[in-house]
Each structure stands twice: as C-alpha cells, then as structure tokens.
Amino acid sequence: MSPEPTADTPAVDPSLDADARSLRRAMGDLIRLVQFRDRDRICCHDVSVSQCHALEGVLRRGPLRLGDLAAHLYLDKSTTSRVVDGLIAKGYAERRRDPDDGRAVLLHGTEAGRALFAKIDDDLHAETMAVLEGLAPEARRALPQLLVRLVRAKANRMGVSCDCCGPDEADGAGNPSQASCIAT
Amino acid sequence: MSPEPTADTPAVDPSLDADARSLRRAMGDLIRLVQFRDRDRICCHDVSVSQCHALEGVLRRGPLRLGDLAAHLYLDKSTTSRVVDGLIAKGYAERRRDPDDGRAVLLHGTEAGRALFAKIDDDLHAETMAVLEGLAPEARRALPQLLVRLVRAKANRMGVSCDCCGPDEADGAGNPSQASCIAT
DNA sequence: CACCTATAGTTGCATTTGACAACTAATTGA
DNA sequence: TCAATTAGTTGTCAAATGCAACTATAGGTG
User: Is A182 on the interface with B (CB under 8 A)?
Assistant: First the structure.
C-alpha cells in the first residue's frame, strides 16, 4: 500500500494520500451539487444545463456536425438531436445542411444564441474569478491542469475519449496537452 | 473589465483572467463527463451513482436520518428515500427507527455496504493518487481548498447550503473552514 | 388530557433526461 | 448500378427526480 522510498521511487510524499482524500471529498461535493440541477432547471437564463453545454459547444467550436457535438457532450446522438431541437425552438441555434455532405447538418449559433451565451459566460467567468481571487497564482494555475488529468483518468476508466485532451500525454514539464485543451 | 492596479487593489495578476477561463473549460469537461452516467449506470460495482453517494454518506456520517442524507446529496427527500430503497434492496444499508424520535429513521450501513464501499473507495482513491502523483505538492494541496471555494460559490448561487463547508468564511490565512470539510 | 400544528418519511404522479433500435437519406466503393 | 456505410431523426422505454398528498409521530397550549 505505502511504497517505501527507495533509490528509484524518489520518496513518495507521505501527504499525498491525505491530499488525495481531501481532493476526493471536495470533488464529491462538487459532483453532487452539480448533478442537482432539476431544481432550477434553467441553467441560468433561458436554457437547460444540457442546452447550455450544447450552446457552448456550438459557439466555441464553430459550426459543427451533430455527431461531433454529441461526442463533445458525451451524449447519444439522438439525445443530442433533441437537445439541439430545444435550442433551435428558442432561436439560439439553427441547422444547416453541410454543403460538403448532404447527410450531415451543420449547427450554427444565431445572434441570439451568441448574446445569450455571452451573458451566461460572463456570469460564470465572474464567479470563477471570484473563486480564484486571492489564491496563490501557482495554485490556481495548476488547477486546470489537474482537472484535465482527472477528466482524462475518468474518461479513460469510462472508456470514452475526452475531447478536451487528446489520447494521452505525460505532462511532466509545463503545460503539455493541456495547451490543446485551453487553446481552443 | 480589467481593473487597474492601484494602491489598494494590489496589482491584479493579469493571468487571473486566463486562469479562470482555463479552469472553467476544464470544469465544463468534468461536469459533462460526470453527468454522462446513464451509460454505465453502475458507478463501479453494484450501485448507481446516486446510490454510491448515498452509501458514502451513510457510512461516513454514521447512522443518520433520511432528511440529513437528502441534504447531503442535494436531493429531495422523496428521491433520497427511493435511492435508499435501492441500497436496502441490495443489502447495503438498513432503516432503523430512531429511538429518540418515532417519526424518524436512522440509516445504517450493513457489513456488505461497508465492504462494497471500501472497494469503491479504494478504486477511486487509487485513481486520485495517480492523478495527483507527480504534481507539485503545494499545488495539489491547494486544490481541495480551491474546489471547496468553488463548491461554496456554486451552492451560494443556487441558494443551498453545502454541508462540506459552513455558511461562509473568508479564508485569507492557511486552511480555515476547509478544515471542517476535510476533517469530518 | 384533547387537540392543533409542525415535522419525518413514504407514496402517487408527472416531467425530464437519456439510451437503444429502427428508420430515412445521402455518400462511397466495387 | 447497387450494396455497404455513415449522419441524423424519430419511436419507445426505462430511470431519475421533484412536487404534492398522505401517514404517523412529536410538541405545545388551552
């Protein structure tokens, strides 16, 4: 269980274990809180949580196919199609035929969609800023990196590929595959 | 938008904004991934995700009332009751009358429940350890604290009180109300 | 003590979310 | 030209969840 520090296992920090427990506890709280969403079913403004994620996907990743959005959302394409229906019904997105492939649709955000998302994004950004404020810069910089690793580990375990970060890549140095995640 | 550094706003780190965006992107991925749970509906072994959280609550917080568990899970008490039904059906928990209050039940974990949870806990702990490994100790130590702040902020916004951390408390110093979260 | 009110849980019911499977339409390749 | 593949949509069903109604117990107050 607790590997002894030897020449090639360079002294495992004894607090690692405790840190892991703390992290899991906090994560558990976060996850439970996040999954409780039906109450104020509306994410923030006029859309459900899924719709909000979908809107973000459509806007951030430019016009994209339904299947790609489904992958991004970790949802079945049928579910995704219906989520998009909702977005379209509210006038935040639209389906257009892909000129290069008659089977496919390209999802575009509308002006209203962009406006709505900008508002939501601002809100969440402000909230996040408030959370980060006053934190040691190194710590807050390390956080996304850590979350990405966590997501990757979970995705791996669940047998899906997370689009945030490629197949895999050891990040011993500064910001390796994380870059590809943040950049988009 | 970008507040100018003055005497009393001690030079806002210009990277704060970028850090916040990175964080939100990673969080988004995490949340989407986590909400995709119906697929392998079974958390890991023999229970659903909700049941897993409930089991953890029952075991970690000793015998507790249904209402308290519901609060912990951010679920309606009716839903919680049914989640517990599932746990009981599988023999992982049991309802007992509260000797001090005939209306209440006290939820107890069974031996099987303890055993199952130990297994799940080990798995997740190992996963978390792997994620944390190789990270700078300060960074990984700061992480739970940060998540707690995030949870608190979200809980606040949603108008619920998160049990992980009390009403609120500025943590300028080392580890303030975070302690109460980790300690439990 | 009797009764009214508040509290703890359970059950009925409707809604939402989601997956899977069947279907349609379009592309690709032999 | 036609079979096989691929992109999306729609039908159907199951699970999760909240709200409201209900039961049973506690706690006060006249």
Answer: yes
Tell me how close the Cα of A58 comes to any Cα of chain B, in angstroms: 14
List Cα–Cα distances, A86 to A38, A83, A90, B122, in angstroms.
16, 5, 6, 41
Residue B134 Cα to chain centre, angstroms? 24
Q: Could you report the per-residue pLDDT of A132-166, keeping only the tens digit for each?
A: 887 777 777 777 878 888 888 777 766 666 655 44
Q: Which amino acid is at B159?
A: G
Rounded Cα distance between A175 and A27, Å, is 23
Handedness of CA B84, B86, B89, B91 (dihedral sign): negative
CB contact under 8 A, B154 and A33: yes
pLDDT tens, residue by residue, A33-91: 776 654 445 566 778 888 989 999 999 997 999 999 999 998 999 999 999 999 999 99
Record the pTM. Answer: 0.78
Considering only CB atoms, which chain B residues are within 8 Å of A147? 23, 26-27, 29-30
Exposed, middle or buried, B81 (CB in 10 Å: 0-12/13-18/19+)?
Answer: middle
